[in-house]
Amino acid sequence: MSFSGRRVSILRSSAGISTEGARRASTVIQGPSANELKSPIHSEFRSHPAHRPHAGLETNRASTGVVWCTEQASKHGFIQHPEEWANLGQGAPEVDDEIEGCFLRPESIPLTSAGREYGPTAGIKEMRAAVANLYNDNYRKGMASKYTWENVCIVPGGRAGLIRIAAVLGNAYVGFFIPDYTAYNEMLSLFKNFVAIPSPLSGEDGYHIHADKVAEELARGTSVILTSNPRNPTGHSLSIEELARIQDICRDRATLIFDEFYAGYNYNHDCDGTTISAASNVIDVNDDDVLLIDGMTKRFRLPGWRVAWIVGPKDFINALGSCGSYLDGGTNVPFQEAAVSMLEPAKVQEEMKSLQTHFKIKRDYCLTRLHEIGFNRGDQDIPDSTFYIWLDLTTLDPPLPPNSGLDISNGLSFFDALLKEKAIVVPGIFFDLNPAKRRDLFDSPCHHFVRISYGPKMEVLKMGMDAIERVVKKARGEVGMYDHAISDEPTEGMSPKVKRHSAKGMGERHR
Question: Within this chain, do residues 228 and 239 fall inside the same structural domain, yes or no?
Answer without folding.
Answer: yes
